[in-house]
Amino acid sequence: MRAVVCTAYGPPDVLRLEERATPICGKHEVRIRVRATAVTSSDCYVRGLALSPGYRILARLVLGWSAPRQPVLGMVLSGEVDAIGQEVRSLAVGDQVFGMDKDRFGTYAQHVCWPEDGLLVRRPAGITDEEAAAIPYGGLLASHLLRKAGVRSGAAVLVYGASGAVGTSAVQLARHLGAEVTAVCSGANADLVASLGASRVIDYTREEFTQQAGRYDAVLDAVGKRRSAAALKGVRRVLAPGGSCVSIDDGAPSLRREDLVLLGTLAAEGGIRAVIDRTYTLDQIVEAHRYVDGGHKRGNVVIRVP
Prior knowledge:
The protein is 27% helix and 28% strand. By secondary structure, the chain is α/β, with parallel strands linked by helices. The protein folds into two domains: 2-135 and 274-304, Medium-chain alcohol dehydrogenases, catalytic domain (Quinone Oxidoreductase, Chain A, domain 1); 138-247, 3-Layer(aba) Sandwich (Rossmann fold). Helix 9 links the parallel strand 13 (276-281) and strand 14. The longest helix has 14 residues, at 136-149. The radius of gyration is 19 Å and the shape is globular. The termini are close together.
């Protein structure tokens, strides 16, 4: 099979397309013919080891010292089950599936083996492989943020970093829950996030949301503290009594299978939409990583796997 291998930690050029053996699934695993994946910010952090010195050493111990032990990166997919282990009961050959595995990686390839009981569910017929690949990363992390913040109908919610993969999902899911959403992003992305359900958009290049008059029951940091720390320094000034600020960097996220099922249903029914900025093919993975490294993608960057 064709796969993209990360040969070392570093810039996008460390990625190489090569031929590798097609994996054989274990007894509780399914093998998926990958049709589409996505380049997430987490993929880029792993590839570039873009962490503080202390965390970089810890990451090398966990991931591999000079290069990732699992050389094929990628944690989200949409595709078709083409083989199953002897103990698999919930999925069958021919099932169209989508999902995410933040520990195994492996989706920058034509085939990958994942456990049947992981974050892997059937793909609804109403969405394409490209749309399905764009849903899990941002959708599952946004679901975690909303749950952790206790967002309910009628809540006033601010999403910082509203135009990225997590942010575009958070805006839509908060509106689905019945919240009133204020989005913080660049002015260039204001129309996009407004179309997703934000009732107010603050251009962070022109004004600081912590200096505005609004009060919020929840402030959701969808970009992580490396980029949000300065902007969120005065966040207490805009929190309503009992309000909270939660970040995707606050501990290990709780990602749930039932959230993935709901995300697929909402996408198929038009309740949310997958936001895709650009689409590349597997042999354009270096270019795709360069684009994501730039930090200005809108929603998701999807990779077709021919």
